TrEMBL record:
Domain of life: Eukaryota
PANTHER family referenced in this protein's UniProt entry, alphabetically: LEUCINE-RICH REPEAT RECEPTOR PROTEIN KINASE EMS1-LIKE-RELATED, LEUCINE-RICH REPEAT-CONTAINING N-TERMINAL PLANT-TYPE DOMAIN-CONTAINING PROTEIN
Name of this chain's protein: Leucine-rich repeat-containing N-terminal plant-type domain-containing protein
One Gene Ontology CC term in the entry: plasma membrane
Leucine-rich repeat-containing N-terminal plant-type domain mapped to chain residues: 39-82
InterPro entries: Leu-rich_rpt (IPR001611), Leu-rich_rpt_typical-subtyp (IPR003591), LRR_dom_sf (IPR032675), LRR_N_plant-typ (IPR013210), RLP23-like (IPR046956)
Amino acid sequence: MGWLCLLFLLFTTCQFNSTCSSSSFSSSSSSFSSRHLCHPDDSYALLQFKKAFSIRTLSLYSNRTISWQKGKDCCAWSGVTCEKRTGHVISLNLHFGGLQGNIHSNNSLFFLRHLRRLDLSRNDFQGSPISSQFGGFVSMTHLDLSNSNFSGPIPTEISHLSNLVSLNLSQAAVTLDTLSLNRIVQNLTNLRELDMAAVDMSSVVPDSFNNLSSSLTTLILFHCHLQGKFPESIFHPPNLRQVDLGSNYNLTGYFPKSNWSSPLESLDLSHTRISVDWHHLTRNFRSLRYLFLKNCTFVGSYLASLGNLTQIMLLDLSYNGFGGHIPWSLLNLERLKDLDLSGNNFVGQFPEVVRNSTGISYLYEFSEGPLVGPIPRHLTKLTLYNNSLNGTMPSWLGSLPSLEELNLRRNQLSGNIFEFQSRSLSRLDLSYNKLHGLVPRSIYELVNLGWLDLSSNNLSGTVEFEKFSKLQSLVRLNLSSNHLSLSFNNLSNNTWLELSTLDLSFCNISEFPYFLRASPNLEALYLSHNRIQGNLPKWLLDVGKESLTYLDLSHNFLTGTVELRWKNLQYLDLRNNSIQGKLPIPPPSTFYFTISNNQLIGEIPPIICSLSFLQILDLSYNRLSGKIPQCIGNFSQRLSVLDLRKNKFDGIIPNTFSTRNVLRNLNLNGNQLEGPLPLSLLTCRELEVLDLQVLMLRSNKFHGGIGNPKTRFPFQNLRIMDLSNNQFSGLLPTKYFEHLTTMKNLQKQELQYMGEQYCEDTVVVAIKGIEIEMVKIQNFFTIIDFSNNGFSGEIPNVIGKLKSLKGLNLSHNELTGTIPDSFGDLSNLEWLDLSSNALVGEIPEQLTNLTSLGKFNVSKNRLVGAIPTGKQFDTFENNSYSGNIGLCGFPLSKTCVPHPSPPSSLQQEDDLDNVNGFDWKIVLMGYASGLVIGISVGYLALSNGRSNGLLKVIRKTRWGKIMKITHRAA
């Protein structure tokens, strides 16, 4: 009030004093503004706003509100800007302020009606909706609510902010509909920057963007779930500098083809279906400096006009299937700073360096031309991983003065690694090549190096870890899968405080690296396939106690009991050791846990069911005993693989598996389980959610017939159905065969494998008479094996419709009738065994159409007539037909003579009602039984004596000798 009275006196004095000038008022006003007193209402509102939230005090956050104290001028508070004349708050910047809590519509923030700029980005508002009250800031020019954990729809009231110049609402869990977008586009006519990255716009009609402000300079719609055709006009605004439409996977459209010029400097169309024409792109957008076209759709000439982009500084053309040689001569190497051509099919070698008469170095594709251009001395990042580049690494790469990141992972590069002349590298990845020789000495001098990956090469020699002592910025170090010898001597005083990932797998080490004791931020440790012996040292249990999430100590010689102190483990692999004692239980955060092939004893403690995130659990090949905890079935909504085989469990299988379970592999083979199969696995109406692809009940004591179904047939996706070596009887299940949809459809024989990232399931099947353990197998492998049972009656004709079948074994049963002619339609069949039955009639001539048939056995039946000739039938030997005294012709010595046709057998009665389903009349499980139900098993075809994956042959069944085979996939 004192200041107001002073102003009033000055004003009235001027009314009666002609000598009063405007300068006297200005000086008083200036004196007032210099003190910057905050308006009391605004000060109160800010303090109330602060009270509404807790403040996270991590160093990551700025904690601006710590300076907000009652009784002090709020205009001097951090992040607060006031209007000089009135003292009202006009700008509030709380970016990364550590705010945590809900922001409601009655929050005191909305009392600050004079705000022009508001930045609440990078806070945590815990899923609060974006309040319609934000639309009340009528003077707002800049609004940033990005990445602050808001959720729900963007209110239409945002369109009331007609003075907005910049709007950033980017974050997931926020949605925008067409109506709200149309109002924003129509009313925000002054908008220059619009950032809606990750906002869900799946319901938005792309044409709504047609009328965006002509003042627009920046449009960011990254990963907004946009779909449909995007309007071409969006590229025409006269001031547009940046457009980001990346990761809208279903967004289509075309570049405008008219002859015009755009000032566009940055364009991202990665992971969209917008058609990119190089000719029009390079003609219309010559000002481009940053171009992101990862995994795009290209039309027209291949990179022909790339040289027109004379201003280009960053170019990402990764994962587009480009082939041939890298077009070095079309790249503007003088300006280029970041080049990413990874994930293509580029071949050939790097260009060489040639000096001219004046000593200037140039790049040439070959030693005598063509000319590429000068060495790219400004290049900071070169990413060429996942190509087929060969030859040696050029030494000029090591002399680039600005190079910070070099990624040549997964190529065919050979020779030695050159010495680095420059010390600017912060990331170096040369993994999965054919490099050999020593680790170059210069690597130990790259003091800025934070990422070093030399894994999966042929490097040799001794690596003394003390040489890494200068690399104090190391975050990731991977030397695995080479021929290196590692020495940890003289490391007592060395620490790598920033180290988060260390991979020394396949490094032939015999001890735990003691220097890890001083790596408090370790997140991932991989020491598998080494020679480490003895107990886990106590000091190791304290390394990364709070931070370690991935630990792989598998395939070593660890002994003793295991104590787990790590609190946040997610991935734990201890398989193939000699660990003893009771089963250790990892923390509740674990999703992958395998400790198979050890010497564990005792029962599974019920506390294991507290691992609510568990997806993979493998305790196989131990000495665990007792009953399987019933609670295991309770968390099967997440559990994908449960492998308990080859232990000493007794009792019954838990009957608590949820109807919503996602089990794809349940393996209980080789225990002492008994009792009935759980109804939740076989007769549940919702069981199809298992997407079951493998049903293996072989070598148990199941008996009885497969009766009429009472529920829908749940196993339409079956690829392997093995009921062999049991005591089943009755007719073959015709109706089941009719519903094997996957077996009816021919599969594209691409090199794909069933299973998932973290688990390679195994299963034992008989292929062409040899029992084989499948480890990594192709997904089009389909077989039916009902051998060694007591099935009777005729073979159903419907089996001939299962055109994807690779193997069919019905041997050693009591089947009668003839071999169906429809078997001639099984064009993919590679082995067929019908031996040791009571089949009659002739071998159908149609079987000669099976050109992939490698094994054929109909021995010990009652077949008659001439053996078909031609194609595969000219390759089968006598033992394929022995025991059929009525057969004649090649390869038998018996010559064919005319004979009467055999009497036709009685037609098999339908064994199932017209109701789909899967039910067992009598199914019992006895001691020493096993159960395998899984899907993560594909195909290792033994065609023409070759295999496509890793095979372990277990024993001969009837066709082969005892043998061991290990074969790695090409």
